[in-house]
Amino acid sequence: AQTVTQSQPEMSVQEAETVTLSCTYDTSESDYYLFWYKQPPSRQMILVIRQEAYKQQNATENRFSVNFQKAAKSFSLKISDSQLGDAAMYFCAYRSAIRQGGGADGLTFGKGTHLIIQP
Amino acid sequence: DAGVTQSPTHLIKTRGQQVTLRCSPKSGHDTVSWYQQALGQGPQFIFQYYEEEERQRGNFPDRFSGHQFPNYSSELNVNALLLGDSALYLCASSHGYPGETQYFGPGTRLLVL
Fold first, then answer.
1. Which residue of B has its CA nearest to A91?
2. Mean pLDDT of the residues in chain A
3. φ and ψ of B77, to 5 deg
4. A34-47 burial string, b = 16+ CB within 10 Å, else e?
5. Taking an 8 Å Cβ-Cβ cutoff, which residues of chain B contact chain A?
6. What is the pLDDT of residues B29-48, one digit of tens each?
7. How far apart are CA A45 and CA B43, in angstroms?
8. How confident is residue A14, by pLDDT bands cut at 50, 70 and 90?
9. Strand A113-118 with A10-14, pairing
10. B50: closest CA among B93, B3, B104, B103?
């Protein structure tokens, strides 16, 4: 079974600064997908960024980028120019690329990192 | 384009009762997954429905069951409620391929007294 670990329960950053959230995972599979989701107090889970394991290039979405280290099984999220609206819980998630019985695999989530933005 | 919708938004039940939660997927999606998120924790995968069948299941007892309708909407049923079933229940929809991104609904907050 896969596991996802987020070792930082809480992080704080000044507005406009850069912050990096850590995520490590454990799997025996070679092909998979990794995701960062954001959950603000409104509780709606929003996709921030995704990475395919077979791609060496790190994914980037505007101010959000990842550092994907496959051998180290590490998948960190960097938020540049932090904004007040970035304050939320951030969850790292893993998904197998193996299609079992049709459909697609469920996501395995970490416990989350609470990101605080200091004005 | 409507996103994933869930109903009700909040629900209060007592131990031993049964509850049904509902989910309508994003337009064009055929796969629905259900997750349980306890307070302060990450979501835990309950099960997934594709083509009206349960395709995968997480580590949840048989008290948790579901259904998918021909229009791809889905229900989650929980029987014999326990206090520990109090949580946010999230529904996510996607296309039925491994690489497809799951889009989440706003959730149903269930409180069991």
1. B42
2. 92
3. -115, 135
4. bbbbbbeeebbbee
5. 31, 33, 35, 40-45, 47-51, 53, 55-56, 58, 88, 90, 92, 94-107
6. 999 999 999 999 999 999 99
7. 10
8. very high
9. parallel
10. B93
